[in-house]
Design a protein that fits this description.
140 residues, alpha+beta, 5 helices, 4 strands
């Protein structure tokens, strides 16, 4: 991949009940973590697809209490990455290499489903920026 490719790569695992068992978000070119590989794992673990799709960014910020704008940005980036991927996976959002999310691979087994998706960083950043402007949490 060329160095100017700033696409993120999401790996998402669901069990047979469509509940999140694991996820990681990293840079596609070098594999580096985005803040942390699974920054919101404690918040997302065992949540269903429907739980995530019905969740709002404020819920993440209220439960995680970010210390600064950078941490808030990273929490929201992880949240929107997983939610956008699940919207594409369930057909609620387009999924192609021209869209903000591209489902690259889906593997099904007796244990559940593993999804690999590419996410355009610009689209995620736009979502995070627009959410930050709504003052969904009080700045202290």
């Amino acid at each position: 991949m060329p160095c100017n490719d700033i696409t993120d790569l999401l790996h998402l695992s669901l069990n047979q009940d469509d509940r999140i068992t694991a996820y990681s978000l990293q840079k596609r070119t070098c594999g580096a973590e985005v803040g942390e590989y699974s920054l919101l794992s404690h918040w997302m673990d065992n949540k269903s697809i429907d739980d995530i799709l019905a969740s709002e960014p404020e819920q993440v910020l209220e439960s995680k209490s970010p210390k600064d704008d950078t941490e808030e940005f990273l929490y929201l980036k992880h949240f929107f990455a997983v939610r956008n991927c699940l919207e594409s996976f369930t057909g609620k959002r387009p999924s192609s290499d021209k869209d903000s999310v591209s489902i690259d691979r889906v593997d099904c087994s007796d244990e559940g489903v593993d999804i690999q998706a590419s996410l355009k960083v610009e689209a995620l950043a736009t979502q995070v920026k627009s959410c930050s402007g709504c003052r969904c949490r009080k700045k202290t």
